[in-house]
Design brief:
two-stranded antiparallel ribbon, Aminoglycoside 3'-phosphotransferase, Chain: A, domain 2, 299 residues, Phosphorylase Kinase, domain 1, alpha+beta, five-stranded antiparallel beta sheet
């Protein structure tokens, strides 16, 4: 997916100085990544500029999940509070937040030991969040559409009534719910000296069944296109061995939850295209492969 080119404006710099008492001097460095938000490093802080569509209430809710996780998980990076106790200011119609900079780089999920670390980190993250009972999310997460069996109408090409029925039945049987990061992939973590040191970007957080996040993470860390089931199973086994909160997951459970994730990913791709996003050949190829995976994994 293309990254946004949202600038860090002079008004945003002044807002950071006024609200957090942190100067943004020189030429902040645009950090790599960001399909919706742009992040800029300025010394030991990172200034994050979100999309105009994200309300302050939604951002604050997600930041609250990060703060709770950080209280029990050193790798969880939470936003810094402004002088008035909030974590977001609105500047030029966009939510702006400030975070501590963590040195590191995206981990290589092709390294088995790094995949194991990812699974264990996810298990510890879930344990840190299991007792948290936040108020209702102000705005439903994009990933929640269709999650409980209602047919998602924003992606007609991926309609699947059998998947809808399976999802409804799964959530009737599995009652455990707690906050999830909901976008736990290598691009939202950092590694340094061979060790995972940070979990970033909490914008998609919501309350749901932990099995959904385990399946999605297994896809991203071990089985990107559905052709490495043994690595996927190993990731899930490592998660369970580390004491994660998700229940046992047979192959059907895993692939159906992955397919829900892939269907929402497809919907997001089309949503971005309608908003004017320009996808290059690599983006289009990746999207097509993921759509094929959605169909190929059908039980």
């Amino acid at each position: 997916m293309p990254f946004v080119d949202t600038p860090l404006t002079a008004a945003m710099r002044r807002a950071v100085q006024d609200a957090w008492g942190r100067p943004v001097d020189g030429e902040p460095m645009r950090l790599y990544g960001g399909e919706e938000s742009a992040a800029y490093r300025a010394g030991d802080i990172v200034v994050r500029v979100g999309p105009a569509s994200r309300t302050n209430a939604e951002a604050e809710w997600c930041h609250g999940i990060a703060a709770h996780a950080a209280a029990g998980l050193p790798e969880a990076v939470a936003p810094l509070r402004a002088r008035d106790g909030t974590t977001v200011v609105r500047v030029e119609g966009r939510p702006v937040s400030v975070w501590s900079h963590v040195a590191g780089e995206w981990p290589d999920a092709d390294e088995p030991q790094m995949r194991t670390q990812g699974a264990r980190l996810l298990a510890r993250l879930h344990r840190a969040l299991a007792s948290h009972r936040p108020p209702p999310r102000p705005v439903p997460s994009f990933l929640e559409t269709g999650l409980y069996g209602e047919p998602p109408h924003d992606v007609p090409a991926l309609a699947d009534p059998e998947l809808d029925r399976w999802l409804a039945g799964f959530h009737r049987r599995r009652r455990v719910r707690h906050p999830l990061h909901a976008d736990f992939y290598t691009g939202n973590t950092l590694a340094r000296d061979g060790r995972l040191v940070a979990v970033l970007d909490w914008d998609e957080a919501f309350v749901g069944a932990p099995e959904l996040e385990v399946a999605s993470a297994a896809l991203e860390w071990a089985d990107e296109h559905g052709d490495a089931p043994d690595e996927r199973r190993r990731f899930i086994a490592d998660y369970h061995d580390a004491g994660g909160t998700a229940g046992e997951m047979d192959d059907e459970t895993v692939v159906q939850l992955i397919r829900h994730r892939l269907r929402r990913e497809g919907a997001y791709f089309e949503h971005a295209r309608r908003r004017g996003a320009v996808h290059d050949e690599d983006d289009l190829d990746y999207h097509e492969r993921r759509v094929k995976t959605f169909f190929a994994l059908r039980p």
